[in-house]
Amino acid sequence: xxxxKRSAADPISGSSIYAHIVGWGMAVPDRIMTNEEMSAxxxxxxxxxxxxxxxxxxxxxxxxxxxxxxxxxxxxxxxxVADILxxxxxxxxxxxxxxxxxxxxxxxxxxxxxxxxxAGAFDMSAACSGFVxxxxxxxQSIRSGxxxxxxxxxxxxxxxxxxxxxxxxxxxxxxxxxxxVLQASDVEGGVLSTVLRSDGSGYDLLGIPSVGSxxxxxxxxxxxxxxxxxxxxxxxxxxxxxxxxxxxxxxQALDNVxxxxxxxxxxxxxxxxxxxxxxxxxxxxxxxxxxxxxIERYGNTSAASIPIALCEAIEQGRVQxxxxxxxxxxGGGLTWASMVVKWGAPEAEERQAAVLGKQRRQAxxxxxxxxxxxxxxxxxxxxxxxxxxxxxxxxxRLRHKIDQHDLR
Length: 408
Ligand SMILES: CC(C)(COP(=O)(O)OP(=O)(O)OC[C@H]1O[C@@H](n2cnc3c(N)ncnc32)[C@H](O)[C@@H]1OP(=O)(O)O)[C@@H](O)C(=O)NCCC(=O)NCCS
Description:
By secondary structure, this protein is an alpha+beta fold. It has 12 helices and 15 strands. Residues 1-6 have low confidence and may be disordered.
């Protein structure tokens, strides 16, 4: 690890266990959709989109991409950087608004594909704030001492929930995934402070109606006229909300740990609109350059936008050991969240994944695939045998019952 001071206990949490980000990875689909292409679908233009949002292009999931496959790739890269085996992961959280299923969770799929056989897994629904919420949950599990290693994935296929007739939303979003590995350490740092907030009175400003809505059979949800499984948004209201909460929540998260804004090296905001970032910079009275922005290449990838921007910031050398960095997310709910992290990841040369570790991880992925296939095959076989020899099946079940209740 880089040079850090060790301390007995954090004055805020009282815990002497810290949760550090030790691995990171991202994955985006190959297909790029430019603003010009967008203008062939809805009445818009490259000039309008760039001027109002800063977006030039976004990635769109291909036939073989899904929320889980993109998330898996990002997770594998994060495990590579952390140089740990999937079996070391004890918790998998996937932040997403575009889960593969309502259940089972995308997290369970990724846990299985990785061979993370010692992990619990669940999805987190907090829209574009989801990554910060999920990292907070993972960090708290580590700091409480209940687990040592967690994997947080944020993955989205927003293109599949876009209303491609609504130029007010479809121009904004794109697909992609990011992931981080968090690990316990006695080195002071890692996730230091989090502010999580929600204001459900704004639930109708941004959302995707699903099966729990009023009328699940109708193609249109009344009385609002929102389409099932398609995003709807009041852009102007969301813009005002986002511009207000970014500054407020960053200030609160810094106050919690007695830090000043000028001690922060980098702010990694949710990438929703370049003008929102500019307005937050003005409110905080800081240069816009302290915020990392990559919205021009990916658009808004919802929960995935912060970890994708983080990966690119690390690649550009903008994050160094002992730097204070801030994540800030906001979105549907309405929800918003800020987090202060003292960067404590191992130095680049220490991070080189050992060849042995790499091979064992690959073996784990292959084994996981075969294990799942084998279990499914066994299940089918056992059902088939029961069908062919129903009496034997009945006798077997009866015997099992007798054994269980000790009725002999
Ligand atoms: C959606 C958003 C880009 C719209 O920008 P805006 O400057 O607020 O634009 P308005 O909605 O006021 O519309 C201005 C005009 O542009 C038009 N317009 C809207 N979308 C357009 C598009 N894609 N192309 C061309 N014109 C468009 C409107 O119809 C309106 O025309 P009118 O003046 O003739 O009525 C902006 O409100 C926004 O980014 N909001 C936040 C959204 C967000 O970040 N959501 C996710 C949060 S996680």
